[in-house]
Amino acid sequence: MSGSALYETFARAPLVFDHGEGTWLITDKGERYLDFAGGIAVNSLGHSHPHLVAALTEQAAKLWHVSNLYEIPGQSRLGERLADATFADKVFFTNSGAEALECAIKTARRYHFVKGHPERFRIITFEGAFHGRTLATIAAGGQYKYLEGFGPKVEGFDQVGFDDIDAAEKAITPQTAAILIEPVQGEGGIRPVPTQSLKRLRQLCEQHGLLLIYDEVQCGIGRTGKLFAHEWSGVTPDIMAIAKGIGGGFPMGACLATDEAAVGMTAGVHGTTFGGNPLAMAVGNAVLDVVLEDGFLEDVQRKALLMKQGLASVADEFPEIIEDIRGAGLMLGLKCAMPNTKVNMALRDQHLLAVPAGDNVIRLLPPLTVTDAEIHDALNRIRAGAKGLAEAIASAAAK
Ligand SMILES: Cc1ncc(COP(=O)(O)O)c(C=O)c1O
């Protein structure tokens, strides 16, 4: 055996976290890190949130798992709450984002199948997208680095440029079933899609009988200051995949759809062993209790503004390190003027955790419960990291 028994698929930082408290992670050596990575937008309410811990432990003492062969009251309740809060009428629970996307893709294909158009199975996607690591979702994402070596690409995905709605229109054929888009691209580099573009996509869907699918796995559940990012545009989808934040760290996802879009998803056509399990449902309901509290999302919007303004002033101070600030709500990106991996290391040296993304961006995804003081603390660490990098550049140039 070479080294660890684990697959070598992750390039892990040499950090071992022992426990978490709110926005903080504490290593096995007792060092404290300010967590603005949030498990990549998963720890929506930070670490060890008392309401989530209570919900999970209470459920754990009662019942861990029953099959979807039986009624699961927590699942019906969470389904109804998600439907009440969104465009959707129907919900299917999964264990992950990729599975939520798989369900979304299958829902769209089945819709056309039961409408008498089995030939309509193709889905238009956008460059820079990330939809997961299953065979179908790497095909949807279309990124060569994730497809290479895994055999023939799953058929049925046609990709156009990011925010290139003219190209999306041209890509529509009699075989097209749906358009799939992240309202704010996450892995692609924190790139919000303009409202006007979402409006045009909606129109194209109406015009050609296509379904509009949103992937809100990363940008959903309060991340942008609304429960779902697309609410800023007022443009609703027919189907939507969510995950990450809804579990607050417990693995879960969901596919939401209108009655009409879900018309093909009848008994026996799709399934899951673990999806919608009582433990996950207890946590999902607890996350919604907090996120839907009066004033919670407004406070996220206020804190997001504070953070964005602070970041803009750091970028003004160190343009040789940070070129631009982008994003929405507490889903912010630093477009770097030097390799983002170096900036990420400099932030980690300041005990601030962030996540690199595509397009040479560093993602900042603090918990929605982050305090003003923690935002100021993070800004100081980012300023210190940028200053150190700027000084290193200046002294190298002087040599
Ligand atoms: C937008 C988006 N979609 C889908 C996924 C896949 O989710 P998971 O890793 O839970 O399968 C991710 C994960 O990063 C994501 O950011």
Automatic annotation (TrEMBL):
Gene Ontology molecular function: any one: pyridoxal phosphate binding
Top-rank taxon, per record: Bacteria
Catalytic function, reaction form: N(2)-acetyl-L-ornithine + 2-oxoglutarate = N-acetyl-L-glutamate 5-semialdehyde + L-glutamate
The protein's required cofactors: pyridoxal 5'-phosphate
Keywords: Amino-acid biosynthesis, Aminotransferase, Arginine biosynthesis, Cytoplasm, Pyridoxal phosphate, Transferase
GO biological process: L-arginine biosynthetic process
Entry keyword Cytoplasm: yes
Residues annotated with N6-(pyridoxal phosphate)lysine modification: K244
Family the entry assigns: Belongs to the class-III pyridoxal-phosphate-dependent aminotransferase family. ArgD subfamily.
Name the UniProt record assigns to this protein: Acetylornithine aminotransferase
Annotated source species: Mesorhizobium ciceri
